Amino acid sequence: MRYVHAREKIRGGATALVRCERTCQASILDDDNYKLLLSGKKAYCAAQSPPAKKHVIPVPRTDNWNIVLTYEGEPMTLLEYDIGVKDIRLGL
């Protein structure tokens, strides 16, 4: 399983929007749980979406969030993706 990740400061109540060229799974984790994931230990995902090409993930609280996309592929397979945040309070 391959993955890519982005770290963003996101306000609670906003929505993370993810689009992928291929089917992938999207999760958001706080910094501590992302470190657990990197070390191969069990990590708690604050929110996760099922495998798809488009994901809409509600953000539970204001924090630094690691948005992790996991996908199948060979070691040199690249994943084209776009990550955005929608926060209606900011008009974004």
Features:
92 residues; mainly beta; 1 helix
Model description:
With about 90 residues, the chain is mainly beta. The protein has one domain. Helix content is about 10%, strand content about 50%. The chain contains one helix and six strands. Strands 1, 2, 3, 4, 5 and 6 form a six-stranded antiparallel β-sheet that branches. The N and C termini lie far apart (about 35 Å). The mean pLDDT is about 90.
Count structural domains: 1
Which segments are poorly predicted (pLDDT under 50) over 5 or more consecutive residues?
Answer: none
Report, as a whole number of angstroms, the end-to-end distance: 33 Å
Number of helices: 1
Q: From the helix content, strand content and strand pairing, which structural class follows?
A: mainly beta
Mean pLDDT: 89
Q: What share of residues is helical?
A: under 10%
Strand content: over 45%
Please tell me what the overall shape is.
globular
How is this fold's topology laid out?
Elements: E1 2-10, E2 15-29, H1 31-38, E3 47-48, E4 52-58, E5 63-71, E6 81-86
Antiparallel strand pairs: 1-5, 2-3, 2-4, 2-5, 2-6
In short:
The protein has 92 residues and is mainly beta. It has one helix spanning 31-38; strands at residues 2-10, 15-29, 47-48, 52-58, 63-71, 81-86.
